[in-house]
Amino acid sequence: MCCYAVYRTKEEQVADYLRERIISGVYPRGSRLKRAEIAEQLQLSITPVREALKLLIHFQSWAMGSQLESCQLVALSSGPRLLYSTGTDAGGGSV
Predict the structure, then answer these.
(1) What is the CATH number of the domain that holds 44?
(2) 3-class secondary structure, 29
(3) Radius of gyration over alpha carbons of the chain, in Å?
(4) What total number of domains does the chain contain?
């Protein structure tokens, strides 16, 4: 039986990285996720970071089942921002 390596795009890898950082609380409530800063940290161009953020915004189910299930990443004209609707783990209160 042969095993195949699963190919993952840079966008998918960046999306997983950001998802983990959001769930672990690295980005607090109201954080603006700055594409240029993230790209610099990961030593990538802005394109895979932008596409990863689009993936996370489009597929919001990534937070379901976690302690931060009320978090939501929204696209604003100023850039993606991490918001929470309710919950004490997410900073409490409503937005």
Answers:
(1) 1.10.10.10
(2) coil
(3) 14
(4) 1
